[in-house]
Amino acid sequence: MLHATIWIPFLIAVLVPLTRRVPRLHAGWTVLAIPVALFLYFLMQIQGVRAGEYTLSTIPWMPSLGINITLYLDGLGLLFALLITGMGALVILYSIYYLNKRTESIHHFYIYLLMFMGAMLGVVLSDNLMVLYGFWELTSITSFLLIAFWHRRERSRYGALKSMLITVFGGLAMFAGFNLLYVMSGSYSIREIITQVDGLTGEPLFIPALLLILLGAFTKSAQFPFHIWLPDAMEAPTPVSAYLHSATMVKAGLYLVARLSPVFAGQSEWFWLISIVGLITLLFGSFKAIKQTDLKALLAYSTISQLGLIMCLLGLGSAAAFFPGTEESVLYAMATTAAIFHLINHAVFKGSLFMVVGIIDHETNTRDLRKLGGLISLMPVTFSVALIGAFSMAGLPPFSGFLSKEMFFTALLNIRDLNVLEVKSWLILFPVIAWTASVFTFVYSMILVFKTFTGKLQKEKLDKVPHEAPLGLLLSPVLLVSLAVIFGFFPNLLSHSLIEPAVASVHYGLLPPAETFPVSIHFWHGWTPEIFMTLGVVAVGVILYRGYSRLKFLEREWKGRDSLNRLYDGSLVLMERGSARLTSLYMTGSNRHYLLYIFGFFILALGSALLGAEGITLGMSHYAPLSLYETVVVAVMLLAALAVPFAKSRVNAILFTGAVGYMVTLLFVIFRAPDLALTQMIVETVSVILFLMCFKYLPKLKTVKERSGFRLPNLLIAVGVGLTMTVIALAAMGSSPFPAISEFFLKESYSLAGGKNVVNVILVDFRGFDTLFEIMVLAVASLAIYGLVNLRMEPGVSGRIPGEKRENRALLLRSNDVILRTMSKVIVIIIITFSMYLFFAGHNQPGGGFIGALMTSAALVLMAIAFGMDTVRKVLPLNYRMITAVGLLIAILTAAGSFIFGAPFLSHSFGHFMLPVMGDTELATAVLFDLGVYLAVVGVTMNIIFTIGGDE
Amino acid sequence: MELIMAVAVGILFTIGVYLILSKSLLRIVLGTSLLTHGVHLLLLTMAGLKTGSAPVLGGQGETYVDPLPQALILTSIVISFGVTAFFFVLAYRAYQTLGTDEMDSLKGEEQ
Question: pTM of the prediction?
Answer without folding.
Answer: 0.70
